[in-house]
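Researcher: Structure prediction, please.
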Amino acid sequence: MEFEVFDKRVAISPSEPVVGIQKGGVFTLNRAAFELLGKPVAVELMFNRAKKVIGFRAAPKVLPHAYSVRPNSAGSTYQVSGSAFARYYGISTEKGRRWRAELVGKILTVDTTQPSLQDRYAMRS
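Model: Predicted structure follows.
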């Protein structure tokens, strides 16, 4: 039986903003990412085609293109439907992935050209 040693350096601090995309296209924001956006009830989904960066910006729920932000049952992460967005921009949803996120102005950004947190861990093994 093979075991792998856990390296705490790859564990994500709860204070680090992280955005994931689940298999099938639902975006997840951890609490830190949600709070960086100002705890919005809805967001606009944005995409920079040239740089392959996803953006989330707080928005009024009444905007026709706004997506509701829903807490998961435990209230530890927040979900945004994104399957149509992912399909339109060719973002793979065949497997779930998570990335560190960064606030640029009022936009929470995710650089999808960077290895996902899972891929970074696999590279170290």
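Model: The radius of gyration is 15 Å.
Researcher: Thanks, that helps.
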